């Protein structure tokens, strides 16, 4: 009899979903994006973008489609992030599941005034959240609105934003992926400060958070907008355009980008595609204030040429290379000037000095804020133009030749 | 004496006579006839007595044929030809026994003068069958009759002639049904031991091929043959096999599966410890590796010992095709075995514990499919697996004409409709389908069955402990496999204990030229299979 009872209870076991840590897929709310903001009363306000799987996956589920939104955003308050997260359970029908979250959006206002420190611990501590979650700062808007914005191509906007960053990082080079791990690393390590990508909304704010947004011909869109330069955990300044790319260049994170140079007296008429680049940083520890030498080795292709130049002549190419060197040097120099002016070492010169001469670094470290802007930086570029694409000289050159004849 | 004859015959060129001569139930039957009622007394010299005795002992069966003859062999003799219908080849009896007895060779001058003399005269001159023996007691007489021999009794002499004209209906040699190959011999064993031994002898025409016969089963007296190659197989192994066979004291051995249970090393395991095959080429190949084979009359399945786990993943075709495709297919089979073992468990563990490991887009799909499924993933998987097992069992057992109905119900109703009714998610159908197909791709049915049985506990464990539990369970299974032995040979060899030379024929099938030696743990002394062609060539030039 006892055996029968044991047997029966064993059989019923699988039907009872009481096992620790076991969650069926339909008991989970898959969070794709997390937003962190402050409420007016100073409490932490967390937003969670949660996917509606049956709307997102193709050909399965409810049918019809469009009856329910692809995702929804829950917002809740708490004294800290953990409290806000658990507080959200009053609204969510299922357990929030963070393993697939791709973006973490912080509020510009909060990181400017209160700093970034209080927001990151739980995200990096929770075993569920991946350390590859990309960190963004909502620039000119708030995290809630960013997460609520409906996207046009990918069904989930958090997914789309993360993909945007991946693509732009590969081909444009004004932004680099900064996941939570890298942010924390650059905050902790000696003599370096984080830079974090900015994310803005362009278009009609009101329309962005309605389902109409992806039906509209001109939807409101999220786009990457510069990189935030931090100092002591607070947002100091936004680095935009060539400043941002210059920083990425020095940090040796350029995958590919486009640089314009003059040709035959025509301004910005040749577009050079950087295909890979290597940067060497060297610290010269002689003297009281260290000197740093930056050498960049970009490898490039000619991508566009709107001038009558003879590319079959190697001297033309050498000339272009020289111009390109100048252009790169100028850009890098400008960006270094920019960060020195902000007195924040996002490039990691301090780390470089620490690695070169730890003893000296210990001396400099205390007044690094004052020393950093004074560091003399020389920039040199040694670029190579490898291939002109599938044609050699531009047709404008041939036109000119015809005319001359 | 019988042994000598055996050897002489096997050396002769005649293929018909190549078969081992065994007057079934004549000599060896006396070994185990301890309790079967019939007395060991000498045959009476009166025809009435003998016939009455046989009829009484056998219960006067309808299929017992007693043909009385009045012969004139020097003197007038009453004789009888006795046999059991359907066990004998009646054509042969009519032609080579009865007709020959009735037409006495008149040209011989010394006609016998006594019953005894005429007995031997008939034995030597009047029976044109290959095998004729004289027997003296009733016991052998009955056993011989029941084994399908024909008794020729001459009145007045206390001996009986036993002629072998075994016949009756038997299945022809057909293509194997459970081990199909595209390239390779297409013959399979039949139910007749004689035929089966012949099939192997035709492949290995060596005087070293030894066939030892015995009978097992107190009631059934099933003929059994032990095959090995004298200089290759380890004598200790042969001795061990013989001991284990002789130890069996059972009423009946009807199929080699029953025999397998008697002689295997470990009873409580789901893994088969003896390899069984219905292909003569597989038996020949294994004998040449130094293994021994046990054949049982009445079944085409031959047992091979010792057995290694990797054998179940070797198809004879591996050796007939090129080594590259052979190696690829063999690795595929190992993979497929693992799939059939753990595919549902992985699905359960992934979807209930480790959702973080699923690619995001796939997770959306899976989550959407799970939407509205009322059961936990484990129950869902269990339902589908059991349904599949039911279908498979029904597919094997059902009468052929209803087969169509079952497949329609199975495929359409249970697959499609279960999804539409919201009982299971579509991806579950895929998982079960993959598992099912994978289990059929394992060449050995026996080891596919092990995977089939282990699947369920593994599913349960991964539904409770996730990958952690699954990993532990797999470790336990591997530990168990390592602990198994088949006739003293580690089951997991050559993987554990590791042997580089033998690995050439484990996960891969190396080119035949490179497999110079026989498996190390099986053939102990005579290990060299072939000389190294490469070195030979270089020496010659």
TrEMBL record, chain A:
Keywords (A to Z) from UniProt = Germination, Lipoprotein, Membrane, Palmitate, Signal
Give any single GO term for biological process: spore germination
Keyword Signal present in the record's keywords: the answer is yes
Where is it mostly found? membrane
In the bilayer, the protein is annotated as: Lipid-anchor
Instruction: List residues of the Spore germination GerAC-like C-terminal domain.
Output: 225-389
Q: Where is the Spore germination protein N-terminal domain?
A: 21-199
Recorded hits in InterPro entries, A to Z, give: GerAC_N, Spore_GerAC-like, Spore_GerAC-like_C, Spore_GerAC_C_sf
Query: Does the keyword Signal belong to this entry?
Result: yes
The protein's matches in Pfam families, at most eight in alphabetical order, are given as: Spore_GerAC, Spore_GerAC_N
Cellular compartments annotated: Membrane
Taxonomy, superkingdom: Bacteria
Provide GO CC annotations from the record.
membrane
Q: Which family does it belong to?
A: Belongs to the GerABKC lipoprotein family.
The entry's protein name is: Uncharacterized protein
